[in-house]
Amino acid sequence: MDSSVHLDNVVMNFGDFTAVQKTDLKIESGEFFSFLGPSGCGKTTILNMISGFLDPSEGVVRIGGESMVGVPANKRPTSMIFQNLALFPLMSVAENIEFGLEVRGISKVERKKASDRLLELVALDGSGNKKISELSGGQKQRIAIARALAVEPQVLLLDEPLSALDLKLRQRMRTELKDIQRKTGITFIYITHDQGEALTMSDRVAVMSAGKLQQVADPITLYREPETEFVASFVGENNAIAGTIENIQGNMVTLECGINGKLTGRGVGQLSKGQTANLFIRPENIQLGKKGDMVFNATIQEVNFEGSCLTLNAFISSGLSVAVQIATEEYSSLFIPKASIQLSFMSQDAVVIAGEEHV
Amino acid sequence: MFSQLKARFGSSLSIAIIAIIAIWLVGMVILPQLIMVDYSFRPNLLPKEIGGIKDTYSLSNYETLFSNDIHLSIFVKTIWSSVLVAALTLVVSYPLAFYLAKVATPGQAALCILLLIIPFWINEILRTFSWYIILAYKGPLNALLLSLGVIDRPVRFLSGDSGVMVGMVYAYILFMIFPIYNAIESLDTNQVKAARNLGAGWIRTHYRIIIPHAKPGIATGCIMTFMLAAGSYAVPALLGSPGSRWFTQIIYNWFFEGGDWNQGAAYAFLLLLICIGFIALVMRIFKVGLGDIAR
Hints:
The complex is a heterodimer.
Chain A: E1 5-14, E2 17-27, E3 32-36, H1 43-51, E4 58-63, E5 66-67, E6 78-81, H2 93-103, H3 108-121, H4 137-150, E7 155-159, H5 167-184, E8 187-192, H6 195-201, E9 204-209, E10 212-217, H7 219-224, H8 229-234, E11 239-249, E12 252-256, E13 262-268, E14 276-281, E15 286-288, E16 294-305, E17 309-316, E18 321-327, E19 340-345, E20 351-354
Parallel strand pairs in A: 3-8, 3-9, 6-7, 7-8, 13-20
Antiparallel strand pairs in A: 1-2, 1-4, 4-5, 9-10, 11-12, 11-14, 12-13, 14-20, 15-19, 16-17, 16-19, 17-18
Helix pairs in contact in A: 2-3, 2-4, 3-4
Chain B: H1 2-9, H2 11-40, H3 60-67, H4 69-103, H5 106-117, H6 124-135, H7 140-148, H8 162-185, H9 189-197, H10 202-230, H11 234-239, H12 247-257, H13 261-286, H14 290-294
Helix pairs in contact in B: 1-2, 2-13, 3-13, 4-8, 4-10, 6-8, 8-10, 9-10, 10-13, 12-13
């Protein structure tokens, strides 16, 4: 069954404000797709357009290849899990799960079978007669999933459903969600501002900022090959060093960074000599000593121990602070504030992105 | 209560405060009621006979209602019509309350509430009179319906109970709208969205999600409207015809035209008892407690 979602040149305006700029995006059938971005970037608006709570100002939403123009929210093959779950507090757990089936006129016996099966899927067998208020946060979460799956949607929409849970539970629910997605094989569209969630669960991630899609890629590509400054700085930790493009050789670009010297990295997108650009290098790609081909001196500002790793904040020549992540084994008692160290990175690991935009 | 007051105002002032409340409550609320209860069980006598051998307690004033077919039928009709008024007001108010609570923008809602409240700055008698004019045989409503061709001769709205019902629905609409509005407003909008998302149409969304949530508000509104309707005097007096008397008018007649306070008191208490019974019934049906209503 085709359960792809196609945002066909969709635009959403609220009065003068453009919440979602022209977006053309196809989410494949059976994909776990995430929209990642800070709050107010338009990701929830996209979800509302797919579910039918909002009609796009321009463009068409297609689900399974069919246009959803004029199809109201209650007739779409989508199911949503709300940020606050929105379970019906006056109904029992089973009634909640069966609500969508009751609407479709399915007999009581069949409904009961379905809710039993779903309760088993979310590992809450026998809780059908409980009240919603008797459930813990994680259990409510799972009932919300069961309720959304009961109507056998082609597309499951998830609006930051894990944000209210504590860390441990959140990590477990990530695995469970991924598991459920594999079992059911339906398209999951997940909205989050938490990059950890987006990167661990998704097949592909769309990074959004200010109503614009910045980059759509699988998590590893997104992390290794950011295409815009926003993606480079929003996804994972990154150090940015500003400069002017001095030389381009193949895909390697050398930046003149003034007092910080000349630094080389892989160029991304359209770049030309004389342009201002940023070189992004991740904390874990900066090493102690001269192992890399780009070497610079730094002064330690502070040392943060984080368990399996250490983060050093160090000033480089211009007074710019960079974060450096090293393995705990590399720790030496010489790492004290104001100590001088030598740092280096491989130019292959650095990315040069053009743009005036400040990070 | 006393210790809290004492901690705040000292003992002499607290005693004064409590004494004032007690005097007000006992002297102006409880005692008059008890005197009326006392009246209702005694016969109506000439002043010189009061305290004499004829002045004995009996249930005869209460029995009068059940031996007078006309009064009894008016009594039953008053209760039934008040139920209808409550139901009709609910039908009119629910969509408006829903619109105010969930559909309208804050500006629209404020304007709408203002428009609802402004007429209530005018005296109830005057507002009822305006309905008298609107519903009159040669009034504007008949003129409008005639000119639209809906009717071919004027309708006598004011004979029978329909004028009284219209007047009461209008007079008590705010007592229905506001409790329901408050109840619906506290509903998380995501609940409505979730129901829609699971495939529910509008009717089912109201029936399964919104109305169950608004139940305490609906019960409060129905009880208030029913009480006000059953105890109303001005509306039936102005908009009713001789054939559509309200029970309150009978009570009034006993007191001020018949001069029989004892009989009037008995009738008034019967009305009160039935109303309390009705409220208890409504609360049982809707499964709401006193706490829900006081909210």
